[in-house]
């Protein structure tokens, strides 16, 4: 039986987060990935919950768009 992945438990570990970043943007430094993880991990428990992930994905959506309508 295969080992259960952390994402199956409803959270992302730093290892999961780093793997996703390295896949999407392999040029990013470890330092940037660590800082991004700390920012998203709002409760500093070392895991990113779905709620924290959702909050990060919605970041800035409530701000007024700079698009001007003519």
UniProtKB/TrEMBL annotation:
Keywords: Calcium, Metal-binding
InterPro entries assigned to the protein according to its UniProt record, in alphabetical order: EF-hand-dom_pair (IPR011992), EF_Hand_1_Ca_BS (IPR018247), EF_hand_dom (IPR002048)
EF-hand domain boundaries: 28-63
GO function terms (MF aspect): calcium ion binding
Taxonomic superkingdom: Eukaryota
Gene3D superfamilies: EF-hand (1.10.238.10)
Ranges annotated as spanning the membrane: none
The name this protein goes by in its record: EF-hand calcium-binding domain-containing protein 11
The species this protein was found in: Patagioenas fasciata monilis
Record gene name: EFCAB11
